[in-house]
Write a structure and sequence with these properties.
- The strands form 2 sheets. A 3-stranded antiparallel β-sheet has the order 3-5-4. A two-stranded parallel ribbon has the order 1-2.
- A hairpin with a 4-residue loop joins strand 4 and strand 5.
- Among the domains are: 50 residues, no CATH class; 108 residues, no CATH class; 233 residues, no CATH class; 116 residues, no CATH class; 54 residues.
- It is elongated.
- 26% of the residues are buried.
- By secondary structure, it is an all-alpha fold.
- Helix 15 runs antiparallel to helix 16, helix 21 runs antiparallel to helix 22 and helix 36 packs antiparallel against helix 37.
- It is built from 37 helices and 5 strands.
Length: 810
């Protein structure tokens, strides 16, 4: 044999000399080896060693590099050797974990060992089951039993306890699979580890053979069930419902899992379920699977899927209501029933892990999302809105169940959701919703909270329940809902007093966004209520904070302007999710009309009082901006929209033509949207007459020495007593420099000329007022938490300056 075939590395020669077979092979090769070849080989090596070598060539230098390369030659290992090495490493790690009682390490390494064993014992190059795997399994099981017995009295749970419980379940499943081998090991461990397994591994049948086997087994009936992709599915029976359910739950959330197929399988399991425990377990899994598939496919749940979920939720509650021995709660531990049905003993209560609260909240959220995404002007929106009664009924039913089973933490959340469905509705609609939802519930469901059919009593009871809660969020939202409901039903003073006593406005900037939106809605509703009752100044004060920002849509969650979008998809999506359904919207055109009308009735007399040299004293800045823009127009045509009508009315009122102002205001069609249209129009005519009188007196008082009350009464179509009251109030407030002669029924006007000092004082007050306005703008731009305090301080200072100016004029 040639010498080039004999040369081996040091590692190979060491490994070969360790076995007897390799020694015999080398002895034969040595006999064939020629001595002359050996001598020539040694002489060649000596000559090569004496010759100088280039250190840049591989192996050419005498440095340690050549030795390192020869020592670091890669050893080729078979797949079998690699897997055995992985098993040995896992076993060593498990033994170390047992010494330290580190169950997280034991569980992790045991999972690795199980996976490696499964790979090694399957496939073409399968090996017999390693005996040390059975041994380590039994040792872990015994050690686990001892540890659980020691920790039995310790109520404090930790991550170690969780790992022990998970490992216990895995060992229970594996014990069934290797029952014979475990029994043989426990009988005689030494003999088990000595004996050699000569049994051949059974060859696994192919998929076609499995399908043929199942098909031939079903040939007696003539049919076999075939699933998606041609897979033959096993028949579902009441005996294997829980086993099939466990398989589905284990595959839930894994990649390439067909969720639709899972839902259809769970529906068949529900039909086959016979006992209450089976029905409850399947229904909990089925509802969770329906919600899983919705979050992936669409922004909201399909109507058919939602109806199925609502039906299954009611079925779940019905089963739980009829079987009080089973309780679904979030703090329940996993049941070790080993896929067997559970029949509780008399007086025993079996707790099953689940959440009734999360299911009913998800159904309510999906209902709201569907209303947000459906076109509000299409018939589908009205059809979908009819399901609100069923949502309210499910909330009622979940509330009764949580109350009966002692799940008290869920009650305020359910009651708050019920309140969100009724606070914005008129009393008649609340009563009809109560009646409709009650018809959908069984007779034995009786709610102890808001069981009356009266709308006002329902809202009061729901709010009073939340007032007793410790959470500030529930109390604040209940207060705002109560204020909104009172304002909606023309109880302005009650709503205003409730708002002032609660001090919600002091800390509302620290609340979450949904609560801030609710606060804005309540303030707007208070303003509308004040306007309906004829309180113009109060209505303007309530609406100016929202209407003056120019972001009414965003503040009321009724839309997002295109130019205000951030460009961040996540922020824009969150903004869209906050939008209220269309039937909860407040009419923005009506809101603007009320605000501008109140501003006109306040701003025009104040502008006439200040005179041409009065400076920039604004009561309503948005109204003054619109009025200035309208006056700058070169050509003004007839009014077309709401703003044009109000601007035309303001000009007519400023010139003393109250009839024209009345006609412009009454021509606005938005007033027909309000319930008391006739009363509101009469109130507006009366206010226009009174403010027209005040404006006339402020404008033309310098041209008269006396004015008769009867003449003013005829000019503005007001009773003499009303005219006398208005003039007396103006004189008392030092707005008009005059006196009232009761004998002659006339007004004696006093002509007052300002001195140089008074004029300078007025100019000084004007400059101070401008400085305060600039300070307000700077505070708004900063937008910090001290903005409200600065505004209040500046407003008080401005009020003092105005009063000082009035005193100077008088």
């Amino acid at each position: 044999m040639s010498r080039f075939f004999r040369s081996t590395s040091d590692s190979e020669s060491d490994s070969e000399t360790s076995s007897s077979e390799n020694e015999s092979l080398y002895s034969q090769s040595d006999s064939e080896y020629d001595s002359s070849d050996a001598e020539s080989y040694h002489s060649d090596n000596e000559q090569k060693e004496q010759q100088p070598r280039n250190r840049f060539l591989r192996g050419g230098s005498d440095s340690e590099d050549s030795d390192d390369e020869s020592n670091q030659k890669r050893q080729a290992k078979s797949q079998k050797d690699k897997r055995l090495e992985e098993m040995e490493n896992a076993v060593k790690a498990i033994e170390n974990g047992q010494k330290n009682s580190d169950w997280n390490l034991i569980a992790t390494e045991f999972d690795k060992l199980t996976i490696t064993v499964n790979r090694a014992t399957s496939g073409f190059n399968a090996i017999p089951m390693p005996k040390f795997y059975i041994k380590i399994m039994v040792e872990i099981e015994d050690f686990l039993a001892e540890s659980l017995q020691k920790d039995k009295g310790n109520k404090k749970k930790s991550g170690n306890t969780k790992a022990m419980n998970n490992l216990k379940q895995k060992l229970r499943k594996l014990s069934k699979q290797y029952e014979e081998l475990i029994a043989a090991y426990r009988k005689d461990p030494e003999e088990f580890m000595k004996e050699e397994e000569v049994k051949e591994e059974p060859v696994k049948p192919t998929k076609q053979e499995e399908q043929q086997t199942v098909a031939t087994a079903d040939d007696d009936e003539g049919f076999s069930s075939v699933g998606k992709g041609g897979k033959v599915t096993a028949t579902v029976t009441p005996q294997n419902v829980l086993a099939r359910l466990r398989d589905i739950l284990e595959s839930r959330g894994k990649k390439n899992t067909d969720r639709s197929e899972q839902i259809s399988t769970l529906e068949s399991l529900l039909e086959a379920a016979s006992s209450p425990f089976q029905k409850i377990s399947v229904l909990l899994a089925l509802l969770a699977s329906r919600f899983d598939i919705t979050g992936v496919k669409a922004p909201f749940m399909d109507l058919t899927a939602w109806n199925s979920s609502a039906k299954e939720f009611n079925t779940l509650l019905e089963v739980l209501e009829k079987n009080r021995s089973f309780v679904v709660t979030e703090d329940a531990e996993d049941l070790d029933n080993e896929d067997k049905d559970i029949t509780p003993k008399e007086g025993e209560v079996v707790k099953i892990r689940g959440s009734i609260l999360s299911f009913v909240e998800r159904l309510d959220d999906e209902f709201t999302k569907s209303l947000q995404n459906i076109d509000p002007h299409a018939p589908d929106y009205i059809e979908r809105l009819k399901d609100e009664a069923s949502v309210y009924a499910m909330l009622d039913r979940a509330q009764v169940y949580c109350k009966d089973t002692g799940i008290n933490f869920a009650l305020p959340r359910i009651v708050a959701r019920k309140l969100d469905h009724v606070y914005y509705k008129p009393e008649q609609l609340v009563a009809s919703l109560q009646v409709a939802s009650k018809k959908l519930l069984p007779e034995y469901i009786v709610s102890k909270i808001a069981q009356t059919e009266d709308g006002t009593n329902t809202v009061n009871q729901l709010c009073n329940f939340l007032y007793k809660e410790d959470s500030t969020v529930f109390r604040t939202r209940a207060m705002l809902c109560h204020i909104y409901y009172y304002a909606l039903h023309k109880k302005f003073h009650t709503a205003r007093d409730l708002l002032l006593m609660s001090h919600v406005q002091d800390n509302i900037h620290q609340a979450d966004i949904s609560t801030q939106i609710l606060y804005n809605r309540a303030m707007v509703q208070i303003g509308i209520c004040a306007f309906r009752d004829g309180f113009i100044k109060e209505a303007h004060a309530a609406l100016s904070e929202i209407q003056g920002t120019g972001r009414v849509k965003e503040l009321l969650a009724q839309g997002v302007q295109a130019q205000r979008q951030t460009g961040n998809p996540e922020v824009d999506a969150a903004e869209r999710q906050r939008q209220l359904p269309f039937h909860m919207h407040i009419n923005l055109e009506l809101l603007e009309c009320i605000f501008l009308t109140c501003s006109m009735l306040l701003e025009i007399p104040a502008q006439a009082q200040a005179g041409p040299n009065g400076g920039k004293k604004f009561i309503s800045k948005p109204f003054r901006r619109l009025l200035d823009y309208n006056e700058r127009q070169a050509f003004i045509g007839p009014p077309e929209n709401t703003r044009d009508h109000i601007m035309s009315a303001a000009k007519a009122l400023a010139s003393g033509e109250w009839e024209r102002a009345r006609d412009f205001i009454l021509a606005i069609k938005v007033w027909d949207l309000m319930t008391e249209t006739k009363e509101i129009k009469e109130m507006l005519v009366r206010k226009i007459q009174e403010e027209g009188l005040r404006t006339y007196l402020f404008t033309y008082c310098s041209y008269y020495a006396t004015l008769g009350l009867s003449q003013l009464s005829a000019m503005f179509d007001l009773p003499v007593s009303t005219v006398s009251a208005i003039v007396s109030k103006m004189i008392f407030n030092e707005e008009l420099a005059a006196s009232l002669d009761q004998v002659t029924q006339c007004i004696v006007l006093h002509q007052v000329e300002l001195s140089r000092l008074q004029t300078l004082a007025l100019q000084y007050s004007e400059k101070v007022a401008n400085l305060v306005d600039q300070n307000e703008r700077a505070a708004h731009i900063n937008g910090d938490g001290n903005t409200n305090n600065n505004n209040n301080r500046n407003a008080n200072y401005t009020q003092h300056q105005h009063s000082y100016a009035q005193h100077v004029r008088s």
